[in-house]
Amino acid sequence: MTTMPAALATGLKQIRCDEIPVPEPAPGMVLVKTRLASICGSDLHIVYMGWNAHEFPLPHGYPGHEGVGEVVDGGGTEFVPGDLVLTVPNIWESKVFAGYQLVRPQFLLKLPRDVPEAHLLMAQQLGTVVFGCRRLPTLVGKTVAVIGQGSVGLFHDFMLRRVGAHRIIGIEPVAERLSAGRAMGLDEAIDVTGRRATEAVLDLTGGEGADLVIEAVGSVETLNQTLQMVRPLGRVAVFGLPPTMERVPFDWDTFFRKRLDIHTVFGAQDEPGLPAFQVSVDFITRGDIDMAPFVTHQLPITRVQEAFDLASSKEDGALKVSLTF
Predict the structure, then answer these.
(1) pLDDT for position 317
(2) What are the pLDDT digits (tens) for 293-316?
(3) Surface-to-core class of residue 138, CB atoms within 10 Å of its CB (0-12 exposed, 13-18 middle, 19+ buried)
(4) Which CATH number do you get for residue 185?
(5) Which residues pair with 69 in a beta bridge?
(6) From CA 85, how far away is CA 112, in angstroms rounded?
(7) 64 is a domain residue
(8) Taking a C-beta distance cutoff of 8 angstroms, is the pair 85, 79 a contact?
(9) Alpha-carbon Rg of the chain, whole angstroms?
(10) b/e per residue, 183-214, with b = 16+ CB within 10 A?
(11) What is the C-alpha separation between 288 and 309, in angstroms, rounded?
């Protein structure tokens, strides 16, 4: 086969499937045949909002970075043809939305064969949450509020309990997602947004606010809402990306007066050996987390525009939209 399907983002909210040549094997690079790829919230920010998209069209296959594939040519690395691998390139090199891709070996993790590939695909995003949770202070006896119950928020529900959080509050207006949060073990589920959600968290915490707030949506409004929702001397972890390349308004006064700590979560793919992703694969392989509820929609790469529209609208109970090849 000399050609392959590959997604091409041609403008804001515009992405189609092209047929382009398969990359040639190269020394030190691993040629991977893509089997599955999933659409991340950051992909939507790039293609639908123009985040770090300085000029369209974008490269073929970009910005996909969550994939499962099979090695075709190891390029002289430790990977050999037939290996099933998790492909987790960093955002600058990501081209997972293509039938084949050349990947540097440090962005690949060998996978077991006796676990459904669609479940293993979720290890990428779970791995970024594992990575982020390692940066947190002790949460023993603490209350955490998670804004957003998409896959990132749900994976936080799973991990926060395992690192000691005593009480987890989930905030999500989409009924199907909030139901998934309850199934994941939320102690409190809030089905409103904005000021009403903030007031609900304050009511649940005796007016103090949560010890930690996780921003898992990626909007200007929810970023600033975290500052109202967290207690004085508390912490905010910003997981979601901003929806724009413009400067983002920030409630500095509240941040300053409450003496808050705030950090972003980025860089799991650059850790040598990909330890956070290995932990997430182990969780899935052992059955510690059931990924079946996350695999809600699969569409062929030829319907990539429809897949992106579905991931953006969250309609039909879409939790995680994947592409097949």
Answers:
(1) 86
(2) 998 999 999 999 999 999 999 888
(3) exposed
(4) 3.40.50.720
(5) 34, 85
(6) 9
(7) yes
(8) yes
(9) 20
(10) ebebbbbbbebeeebbebbbebbeeebbbbbb
(11) 31
Beta bridge partners of 297: 321
CB 44 within 8 A of CB 311: yes
Do residues 165 and 146 make contact, with C-beta atoms less than 8 angstroms apart? no
The answer as to whether 130 is a domain residue is no
Q: Is the pTM of this model over 0.90?
A: yes
Q: Whole-angstrom Cα distance, residue 294 to residue 309?
A: 18
Q: Take residue 115 and report the two structure tokens written for it.
A: 């676990």
Helix (H) / strand (E) element for 119: namely helix 117-121
Identify whether 131 is part of a domain.
Answer: no
Per the structure, the count of domains in the chain is 2
Contact 101, 6 (CB under 8 A): no
Band of pLDDT at residue 23, cut at 50, 70 and 90 = very high
Q: Do residue 106 and residue 34 come from a single domain? A: yes
Do 293 and 247 share a structural domain?
A: no
Q: Which domain holds residue 107?
A: 3-125+274-324
Q: Distance between CA 287 and CA 304 in Å, rounded?
A: 31
The pLDDT of residue 1 is 61
At residue 91, the 3 state secondary structure works out as: coil
Same domain (yes/no): 222, 320: no
Tell me, yes or no, whether 66 lies in a domain.
yes
Give the Cα separation of 266 and 72 in Å (integer): 30
